[in-house]
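Structure ticket #2291
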Amino acid sequence: MGTIDRITEEFLFVENPESMPGPGLILQTKPPFLLGKVVNFKTREEMKIYLTRKGGLGFIKNCPGYLVCVIPIEPLMYSETIMNNEVIRAYEGMANFYLEKKIKRNEGYYKRYREKTDS
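Resolution: structure written out below.
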């Protein structure tokens, strides 16, 4: 069993190792220590319905170009002072982390979640 001497990444996967495609959880390793859940959608309409049911939370972030979102794990423990800035930046960071570490390394798997452009 290994030990972690120090954490150098701002985000870590809690489930699904980097080598495995598919949804999982992402932990922010620095304050405010938030946890995000990755959710994949088949269509933009499906994503819109899901986000509407979640109450239109402004800090749900999608991976650009894909029908993949990072959403907060409920209940979220945060103070209102960090809600507008730090939380939004944290979930944007998680979405970008997922894009770089999972989607770009497993593009064949994720092409089914690629957002179609109107051209």
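Closing remark: Residues 11-16+23-108 form one domain.
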